[in-house]
Amino acid sequence: MSAxxxxxxxxxxxxxxxxxxxxxxxFVFLTTELMPVGLxxxxxxxxxxxxxxxxLMVTAQGVAAGLGVPFIVxxxxxxxxxxxxxxxxxxxxxxxxxxxxxxxxxLILGTRLLMGFAxxxxxxxxxxxxxxxxxxxxxxxxxxxxxxxxxxxxxxGIPLGTVIEARTDWRTTFGIWAGLSVLVLVAVASLVxxxxxxxxxxxxxxxxxxxxxxxxRTVLFVVVFFVLGxxxxxxxxxxxxxxxxxxxxxxITTVLIIFGVGGAVGxxxxxxxxNKNLRGTFVTGLVGLLVALLLLRFVGNGELGAVVALVLWGxxxxxxxxxxxxxxxxxxxxxFEAAMSLNTMAYNTCIALGALFGGLLxxxxxxxxxxxxxxxxxxxSLLLRLATGRAAKTRADAPEDDLAPTVG
Length: 408
Hints:
Blueprint: H1 12-47, H2 51-54, H3 56-75, H4 81-101, H5 105-132, H6 139-167, H7 170-191, H8 203-212, H9 214-234, H10 237-244, H11 249-273, H12 278-299, H13 303-331, H14 336-364, H15 369-393
């Protein structure tokens, strides 16, 4: 079963160009949100703050993206999606520009908070927009194309930001991303058709979904544990490698690219396995993530060990990421945007909390502690998925795996 997305009158070529514009939107939103991951050390040195405090840049944007999205999506439920997306991109552009020139850290933190609201709304509406502007038979492929923007961001965007910072400074990096955001805004305005909102859902109905829908509720808990663990550790990859492996800026850039390539491969592999065994794909990805963190802890003090660990970590993240999106869509196919807004709330809030908890651990215990934090939360997600997945298999209605929409 897959979410029903009515076919529109948009021509095939223009529809796919619109999908490309939405994918580019995901790229600039995600790279902006996670850019500080590769810049924590220069940011902390330039602004005279600790690495943990610098990590709050990720926290602030994640908190806003997570907590604000169900309300904003519901309040804008009758707004045409094209002007809504261009407005979100305008906020992103202005936020990157302010970050590039801000004279102090509090202004940067406040700006990231505002940018988070725009980011969260995009995550809730972007995939469904892409699915609506191509013929219905290609809707799920359009969703997969948009989600590939995650891999592009991790392979190209975040490492590119690190390279730009190494050659210039972190302010120039955010200034360039402001320019990229403008270009994407123009592309969306030109290529995405007018798109009246569908399946309007009120705030009360949005928050009532997990109360009525046990499968969605379970998925959201699984996502919470996985994202807390992953981002609690990943946010501090750079200082961890600098501290334990005496890694240079060039090596860190390389391993971030390697992580992104692994994510792209994992995304591709999962695209072919989620429909055959959604639960098995997700479980395999989580096991790989746990093994990767163990490798990074015990053999990551050398360059070869770090590379092996980051390859496996990226591959596993790509598998888990696509699996959890499919799990969310499968659990509530008839309330697509509402379910995605709750997923976005859980996901981005946990990005924020993961960065916050990781920063506290780094500042008070040491950078190695974030890996143990990541392993503990990933293990909790794995155990919950194993327990609830087994129960789901015994239900009289359709098995969970049969509910996964086709992706890829």
